[in-house]
Write a structure and sequence with these properties.
single chain; alpha+beta; five-stranded mixed β-sheet; repeat; guanyl-nucleotide exchange factor activity
Length: about 1300
C-alpha cells in the first residue's frame, strides 16, 4: 500500500465504475438476497410451525417478477487496478446496487437516486464510494421475452392461489404493498401495477455509475455524477466525449492539499471541494442538518451516547443515503474518538445474517418502506439501539446512562440550529413524499428561502410560530442574550458576498452549520477530558514488551480519573472508559511522544486541551460540572469561508483525448461502455502535477496521509495498535463477497473465538478489580474499584452473556436471548417434574443437590436450584422486562457463586440447546463452551453483593434461628424472646420469636449486608435465664447465612445481669472444605470472643493472656480500623465487626482491663463495668471537692462521667458487658479513648482493684497503648444505630 504513495495521495478519484444488467448472462435471480427476503417473509408465517421451507424456493415465485431481485454485475471499471487501492469487485458491486437490479415499466419510472457508501478493509482503512442509480430502457429482446415468460408462470400460479381455499401461506410481498390474501377485486389492480406485456409496455432496468475515492467529498462527487448523467439524457450532446470528463476526474484532478480548496470542471459547470487544514477538525462532507431534521436533537444525543458506549446500533431507512448520512455523522461527532468495531452503514441484502454478529456494530438496514418495525426479526435486542430514521423514532437499550450535562448540551445545540432556522425536534416535513430529496440537492434542505424565512428576523417564519418547542427555545435564546437581529444581518452579508463565493449558498450554509455543530460536540470532550494526560500510565518496559502484554496492561488510571469527576458524570464515564475506542485513543497517545508522531485527531485534540488548560490555569471550574460553552466556532468558520471565497487551486480543464475516429459516440438516453484503452492509464509524464500545483503539495503528504479520514495503515504504529487492540474484536469487518457456506462458517468461527477471548479478558479484569489490593501486590495492575465501576463491569458481563446467547439462534423470541433460553428450560423442567408420582425423591435429579453450611443442622441449607432462582426473579414486581430479568438473574447467580454451575446445568439439556441453536452457535461448540464456563467459575473466588446492593427496595424473606447452648439446655426457659436484625440498608424492628421453636421466618424490605442482631427476652415466668450459643440469620433469596455468636447468659442475677445483647455477625462460609476444617479447630480459637464468656461458667478456666499478647491484640484491632478507612468507600467491610466483633477493639480493651484484675471470692463475679463505676464515683467526688487539677484533666473527667451516666440511665437491659461495649464504641467515635485510659491509669481505684503486675499499672505499657489509640484521631467513625440505641449523646 505504501508503494504508490505519491500518486495515491494526489488523485481525487481512484476508479470510475459502471454497474448494471449484463445482457450476456441474462436474468440471474439474486438468490442470497431473495432468500433473505423470503425467509423474512416466511418467518412470521412459520414460527408457529417452527419450520422454514426449502431453499429451492429462494427465488420466491410468489413475488411478481418486477419485484424480484436479479443479480447486478460490475460492467466496467476504469482503470483496471491501482496498486494503492486494489479494486474489490464483490464489495463495489454489492454496495453500488445493494438490492441488485430492479425492473420497472413506463408506468412506474423513477428519477435518479444518489447514495454514498464506504468500504472498510479488514485493517480498518476506508475507501468512499459515490453512486448515482437511474433507469435505462432494456433493448435486449432476450431479456424482455424472459420477463414475459416469468410473468406467464407467475400469473398461472397466482390464479391457482386465488381459486383455492385460503391457507395460512399468504403470498406476502416483501417488496411492494403487502397483499395478504388477495381478494378478487384486487386482481385487476395487481395486474395493472405488477404486470408486464411485451407488446404494450416498455421495460426499464436500473443502472449505476460510481466514483471510488480515497476521501469523502460527497458534494463534489455528486455533482460530477449528476452532470455525467445529464450529459447522456439531455437532447444536446456534451461539448466533449464522456471519456474526456472521466479521464479528467481520474487522472487530472488532484486531491486538494490540507487547508486548501480546489476547483475543477464538470460537464456543465465548475465543481468545488475544500479540505480542512491539519489544525482543524477532520474532513466531513455530509449534511448534519438532515440528521437533526430526521431525528431531533434529543434522539441524536441518545444515539450518540449509544455509539460512545459501543452498544450495537442498527439504522433503518428506505433511503440508502440517509443510512450513510446518519452513520457518518454520528462517527464524525465522536471526535477525537474513533469507532473501533464493525461499521457497515449500508448492509447489502445478501449479508443480513451479519445482524447475528455477537460484537458491537454500527450497521444500516434498508427497509422496503412497507413493513413496520414489528415485522423486523432481529437476532438480539438486549443491547441494541434501533433507529427508525424515516419515522423519526429510536429504541434504546435499558439503563442507558445520561450523557454528562445533557440538558445544557441539548440547549447549546438547539441554539446553533435555531440560528440557522432549523427546528430542534424531528421534522416530519422532511419525509413528506421526499420531495426535497427527489430534486437531488441536499443543499436545498439548508436553503433558507425554502424554509419560509424570506424576510425579517429568521425566527418569524410560519414554521417556528407553529412549534411550541421553538417558542420556548426562542425565549431561552433571548434570555441568554443572543440578539436575533444580529443573526439576520449575518445572513444578509452572506447574500451580498454571494458573487464572490465559489459554491452555492446552500453549500456554504451546509459547511457553516456542520462546523458549528461539530465544534460544539468536540468542545464537550475537550472539557470532559481536559486533563486526561495526567492519568495516562506510560509503560515501564520497551514498546515490544508492551505490545506483547497489551491486553494485560492498564493504560489509564481510571479510578483516580473518576474520583476527580463530578458525581452525575460517573454512570456515563465509568462505562465509557471501558470501551475499545477509549483504550485505542489512549494507546495512540502512549505511542506518540512528540507532535510529529501524533496522528491528526490526537494532535488537534491535544492542542485544544492545551488551550483550555491555559485559560483555566487549573482553576476549580475544571472540577465542577459547570457547563462551559464552545468558544472557538468563529475561527473554524472563517477558515472554511476563506477557502470558499478564494479558491487556492484550479485543476486542468477536460480536453480531447487521443481517440480513434468514431470512438466516443453513443445513443442519447443510454450510458455507454467507455473506451477502456484511453482510460486504462493516466498521462505518462505527470506534467499536470507540476503545472497546476506547487511542489509543496507533495512535500509532507507522506506523513499526512493518515490525517483526514484516510486511516490507511501503512504505518507500523497503526499495525501495532490494530494488533494490540484486536482483543474483543477478532472480526473488524465483514468480507463483502459472494458468501459461500464455508465463508459464513469461517466468519462464525471467528465470532466464537472472539467471544471466548472477550470472556477471558472480562473475567480476569473483574477479578483483578474485585481483589483490589491483594491483586496489586501480586502485580496485576491498578488499585481500587468504585461501586459505579463494579456495576459497569457486571453490566458489561451481562451484555457479553446476551451476545453469546444470541449467537446462532434459530428463532428469536423476546428481547433477551438468555432469559428466553431459561424460560424454555423452566417449562421443560416443570413438565418433567409434573410426573404422576409427585416430586421425585431428592438425589435423583442433580438439581436438588443441597449445599452444606456451617450452621450444622440448626438451619437446613437451601437447595441449589436454577428454577428456584428464576422464580425469585419472576416474583420481583419491580423488574418489568426480559432483559432486566436476565440481568437480575445473572447478578443473583454471581452473588450465590452459582453462575457457572447454573449455566452448565442450563446447557446440559442438549436436546433443548439443539432445538434453539444452529450448529455453528457458540453454545454448541463444546470445547469453547467448557472453557467459557471454566472462566466464569473463577468468580467464585470473590464475594460479590451485586444483587443485594442493587435491588435495595425489593422484599426478601429472612429466616432466623436462635441456638441455645446444648450444655445448659433452654428447655425450661419460660420468658418470651425477641430479636431485631440490622443491616447496612435498614433494620427490622423488634420481632417476637416463639419460645417453643426458637425460629421465625419473616419478609421485609432488603436489609443489605447484615451487621448486628439485638436479642433479648421479657424476663417473664419462673425460669427466665437463658444461655444462647448463637443466632443464625439467612437471606431466603441469596442464601447468604450470617452467624452471630453469643455464648452468654441472658437473665437477671446470672452472668452480668443482661436481658438483651447486641451480637455482631459475619457471613458464614458455605464451602464444604472450610466446614471440615472448622470441625478440627478447637472452639477457643474459632471464636475468640468466648474468652470472656467462660468466666461465668467456671472462673478457673479463664485463659490468661500475657502483656505481649494483649498489646498485639490491641495493635491488630486498631490496624484493622486504620486499614478499613484507607480502602475506597465501596470496598470497605463492616466497621461494626472491627469494633465489636471477634478480636475487635472492644475485645482487645477488655483484655487490657482484665489483665491483673483482682477477682474476689470464687462465686461472685466482678465486671470491668463495676471498676469503671467506682472510678466514676471517685472522679465525681474529686470534682465536688475542687481539688486543684488542670483544665484539661477536668475536661476529660467531665466527659467520662457524662458518658457513664448516660449509659447507666439507658432504659435498655444490656448488662454490664453490653455497657462496656457501648462506652468503647462511643469513646472511639468521639476520639476520647486515649484520654480515658490516661485518666484510669492515674486513678487510685486502679491501685485497689488491680494486682501490681497489671498492665494498667505499667507506665511504659500504658503510654504505648495511648499512642496506639491516638491513631484513631484522624478517622471519622460512624456507629451503627443498633450499637447506641437509647443513648442521646
Amino acid at each position: 500500500m505504501s508503494t504508490g504513495f505519491s500518486s495515491s495521495s494526489s488523485r481525487f478519484a481512484d476508479y470510475f465504475v459502471i454497474c448494471g444488467l449484463d445482457t450476456e448472462s441474462g436474468l440471474e435471480p439474486d438468490e442470497l438476497s431473495a432468500l433473505c427476503q423470503y425467509i423474512q417473509a416466511t418467518k412470521f408465517r412459520d414460527v408457529a410451525r417452527g419450520q422454514l421451507a426449502g431453499a429451492e424456493e429462494g427465488e420466491n415465485f410468489e413475488q411478481s417478477p418486477l419485484r424480484r431481485t436479479f443479480k447486478s454485475k460490475v460492467l466496467a471499471h476504469y482503470p483496471d487496478n491501482v496498486e494503492w487501492n486494489p479494486f474489490d469487485q464483490d464489495a463495489v458491486g454489492m454496495l453500488c446496487m445493494p438490492k441488485g437490479l430492479s425492473f420497472r415499466t413506463q408506468t412506474d419510472i423513477r428519477g435518479p437516486q444518489f447514495h454514498s457508501f464506504i468500504i472498510t478493509r479488514e485493517d480498518g482503512s476506508r475507501t468512499y464510494g459515490f453512486a448515482l442509480t437511474f433507469f435505462e430502457e432494456v433493448t435486449s429482446k432476450q431479456i424482455c421475452s424472459a420477463m414475459q415468460t416469468l410473468y406467464h408462470m407467475h400469473n398461472a400460479e397466482q390464479y391457482d392461489i386465488l381459486h383455492t381455499p385460503p391457507t395460512p401461506r399468504s403470498p406476502e410481498d416483501t417488496r411492494s404493498t403487502p397483499h395478504q390474501l388477495l381478494a378478487a377485486p384486487s386482481l385487476s389492480r395487481l395486474q395493472r401495477f405488477n404486470s408486464y406485456d411485451i407488446s404494450r409496455d416498455t421495460l426499464y432496468v436500473s443502472k449505476c455509475i460510481c466514483l471510488i475515492t480515497p476521501m469523502g467529498f460527497a458534494h463534489a462527487c455528486r455533482r460530477v455524477l449528476e452532470q455525467l448523467h445529464q450529459a447522456v439524457t439531455s437532447p444536446q450532446p456534451p461539448p466533449l466525449p464522456l471519456e474526456s470528463y472521466v479521464y479528467n476526474v481520474l487522472y487530472e484532478v488532484p486531491l486538494p492539499p490540507a487547508g486548501r480548496s480546489l476547483k475543477f470542471s464538470g460537464v456543465y459547470g465548475p465543481v468545488v471541494c475544500q479540505r480542512p487544514s491539519t489544525a482543524e477538525l477532520p474532513l466531513f462532507d455530509f449534511p448534519l442538518q438532515e440528521v437533526f431534521e430526521l431525528l431531533g436533537v434529543e434522539n441524536v444525543l441518545q444515539l450518540f451516547t449509544c455509539a460512545l458506549l459501543e452498544i450495537q446500533i442498527l439504522l433503518y431507512s428506505q433511503y440508502y443515503q440517509r443510512l450513510m448520512t446518519v452513520a457518518e455523522s454520528i462517527t464524525a461527532l465522536m471526535f477525537p474518538f474513533q469507532w473501533q468495531h464493525v461499521y457497515v452503514p449500508i448492509l447489502p441484502a445478501s449479508l443480513l445474517h451479519f445482524l447475528d454478529a455477537p460484537v458491537p456494530y454500527l450497521m444500516g438496514l434498508h427497509s422496503n418502506g412497507q413493513d413496520d418495525r414489528t415485522k423486523l426479526e432481529l437476532p438480539q435486542e438486549a443491547n441494541l439501539c434501533f433507529v427508525d430514521i424515516d419515522n423519526h423514532f429510536i429504541e434504546l437499550p435499558e439503563d442507558l446512562p445520561q450523557f454528562p450535562n445533557k440538558l445544557e448540551f441539548i440547549q447549546e445545540i438547539s441554539e446553533v440550529l435555531l440560528a440557522f432556522g432549523i427546528s430542534s425536534e424531528a421534522n416530519p416535513q422532511c419525509s413528506d413524499g421526499q420531495s426535497k430529496l427527489r430534486g437531488f440537492r441536499s443543499g436545498d434542505m439548508a436553503s433558507d428561502k425554502r424554509n419560509g424565512n424570506l424576510a425579517g428576523s429568521p425566527l418569524n417564519s410560519y414554521l417556528l410560530r407553529e412549534n411550541q418547542t421553538i417558542a420556548r427555545l426562542q425565549a431561552l435564546v433571548k434570555r441568554t442574550g443572543v440578539s436575533l437581529e444580529k443573526l439576520d444581518v449575518k445572513e444578509d452579508t452572506s447574500t451580498n458576498k454571494d458573487s464572490k463565493v465559489h459554491c452555492d449558498e446552500e453549500e456554504l450554509k451546509k459547511h457553516q452549520l456542520n462546523i458549528h455543530v461539530r465544534e460544539v460536540f468536540a468542545n464537550r470532550f475537550t472539557q470532559m477530558f481536559s486533563d486526561y494526560e495526567v492519568f495516562v500510565i506510560q509503560p515501564s518496559q520497551d514498546k515490544e514488551a508492551w505490545f506483547s502484554n497489551r491486553d494485560q496492561m492498564q493504560n489509564f488510571d481510571k479510578a483516580s480519573f473518576l474520583s476527580d469527576q463530578p458525581e452525575p458524570y460517573l454512570p456515563f464515564l465509568s462505562r465509557f472508559l471501558e470501551t475499545q475506542m477509549f483504550a485505542s485513543f489512549i494507546d495512540s497517545k502512549i505511542l506518540c511522544h512528540d507532535d510529529e508522531d501524533k496522528e491528526h485527531t490526537l494532535r488537534v485534540f491535544d492542542s485544544r486541551v492545551d488551550k483550555i488548560r491555559m485559560l483555566n490555569v487549573r482553576t476549580p471550574t475544571l472540577r465542577t460540572s459547570m457547563y462551559q460553552k464552545c468558544t472557538n466556532i468563529d475561527e473554524a468558520e472563517k477558515a472554511i469561508e476563506m477557502r470558499l471565497y478564494k479558491i487556492d487551486h484550479t485543476a486542468l480543464h477536460p480536453h480531447l483525448l487521443d481517440m480513434k475516429i468514431g470512438q466516443g459516440r453513443y445513443e442519447p438516453g443510454f450510458f455507454p461502455h467507455l473506451q477502456s484503452d484511453v482510460l486504462s492509464s493516466g498521462p505518462t509524464s505527470n506534467k499536470w502535477a507540476k503545472r497546476s500545483a506547487p511542489a509543496q503539495w507533495r512535500r509532507k503528504d507522506r506523513q499526512k496521509q493518515h490525517t483526514e479520514h484516510l486511516y490507511l495503515d501503512n504505518d507500523q504504529r497503526e499495525k501495532y495498535i490494530q494488533e494490540a487492540r484486536n482483543l474483543g474484536t477478532t472480526l473488524r469487518q465483514p468480507k463483502l463477497s459472494d458468501l459461500s457456506p464455508s465463508v459464513i462458517a469461517q466468519t462464525n468461527w471467528k465470532f466464537v473465538e472472539g467471544l471466548l477471548k472477550e470472556c477471558r479478558n472480562k473475567t480476569k479484569r473483574m477479578l483483578v478489580e474485585k481483589m483490589g489490593r491483594e491483586a496489586v501486590e501480586l502485580g496485576h495492575g491498578e488499585v481500587s474499584i468504585t461501586g459505579v465501576e463494579e456495576n459497569t463491569l457486571i453490566a458489561s458481563l451481562c451484555d457479553l452473556l446476551e451476545r453469546i446467547w444470541s449467537h446462532g439462534l434459530q428463532v428469536k423470541q423476546g428481547k433477551s436471548a438468555l432469559w428466553s433460553h431459561l424460560l424454555h428450560y423452566q417449562e421443560s423442567k416443570e413438565k418433567r417434574d409434573a410426573t404422576p408420582a409427585g416430586l421425585s425423591p431428592p438425589g435423583i435429579i442433580h438439581d436438588t443437590e443441597r449445599r452444606k453450611s456451617d450452621a450444622g443442622c440448626a438451619m437446613p441449607p437451601l437447595k441449589v436450584s436454577l428454577i428456584q432462582d428464576m422464580r425469585h426473579i419472576q416474583n420481583i414486581s419491580e423488574i418489568k422486562t426480559d432483559v432486566g430479568k436476565a440481568r437480575a438473574w445473572v447478578r443473583l447467580s454471581m452473588e450465590k457463586k452459582l453462575l457457572s454451575r447454573h449455566l452448565k446445568q442450563l446447557l446440559s439439556d442438549h436436546e433443548l440447546t439443539k432445538k434453539l441453536y444452529k450448529r455453528y452457535a457458540f453454545l454448541r461448540c463444546d470445547d469453547e463452551k467448557e472453557q467459557f464456563l471454566y472462566h466464569l467459575l473463577s468468580f467464585n473466588a470473590v464475594d460479590y453483593f451485586c444483587f443485594t446492593n442493587v435491588f435495595t427496595t425489593i422484599m426478601i424473606p429472612y429466616h432466623v434461628v436462635i441456638i441455645p447452648s446444648k450444655k445448659l439446655g433452654g428447655s425450661m426457659f419460660t420468658a418470651n424472646p425477641w430479636v431485631c436484625v440490622s443491616g447496612e440498608l435498614a433494620e427490622t424492628g423488634v420481632l417476637q420469636v416463639p419460645k417453643n421453636t426458637l425460629e421465625i421466618t419473616f419478609e421485609c424490605q432488603n436489609l443489605g449486608k447484615l451487621t448486628t442482631v439485638q436479642m433479648g427476652h421479657d424476663n417473664s415466668g419462673l425460669y427466665a435465664k437463658w444461655l444462647v450459643e448463637c443466632v443464625m440469620v439467612r437471606n431466603g433469596i441469596t442464601g447468604h447465612t450470617y452467624k452471630f455468636p453469643c455464648g452468654r447468659w441472658l437473665g437477671k442475677g446470672v452472668d452480668d445481669g443482661s436481658l438483651e445483647r447486641i451480637l455482631v455477625g459475619e457471613l458464614a462460609t458455605n464451602t464444604t472444605e472450610t466446614e471440615d476444617r472448622m470441625c478440627r479447630t478447637p472452639p477457643m480459637q474459632q471464636s475468640p470472643g468466648m474468652m470472656r464468656r467462660f468466666v461465668t461458667i467456671s472462673p478457673n478456666s479463664k485463659p490468661k493472656l500475657n502483656t505481649g499478647q494483649i498489646q498485639e491484640g490491641v495493635g491488630e484491632a486498631i490496624n484493622g480500623i486504620v486499614k478499613h478507612f484507607h480502602k475506597p468507600e465501596k470496598e470497605r467491610g463492616s466497621l461494626t465487626l472491627l469494633l465489636c466483633g471477634e478480636y475487635g477493639l472492644v475485645w482487645a480493651l477488655e483484655q487490657v482491663f482484665q489483665h491483673g484484675f483482682k477477682s474476689p471470692r470464687l462465686f461472685k463475679n466482678v465486671f470491668i463495668w463495676d471498676f469503671l463505676e467506682k472510678a466514676q464515683v471517685y472522679f465525681e467526688s474529686t470534682e465536688q471537692s475542687q481539688m486543684t487539677q488542670d483544665e484539661n484533666w477536668q475536661m476529660r473527667v467531665r466527659h467520662f462521667c457524662h458518658f457513664m451516666r448516660a449509659i447507666n440511665s439507658t432504659p435498655r437491659n444490656i448488662g454490664k458487658d453490653g455497657k462496656f461495649q457501648m462506652l468503647v464504641c462511643l469513646g472511639a467515635r468521639d476520639h476520647l479513648l486515649h484520654h480515658w485510659i490516661a485518666l484510669l491509669a492515674e486513678c487510685p481505684i486502679t491501685a485497689q482493684m488491680y494486682e501490681d503486675m497489671a498492665l494498667l499499672k505499667d507506665h511504659s505499657l500504658v503510654n504505648s497503648l495511648i499512642r496506639v489509640l491516638q491513631t484513631l484521631q484522624e478517622f471519622n467513625i460512624t456507629l451503627e444505630a443498633s450499637l447506641v440505641k437509647g443513648i442521646g449523646i
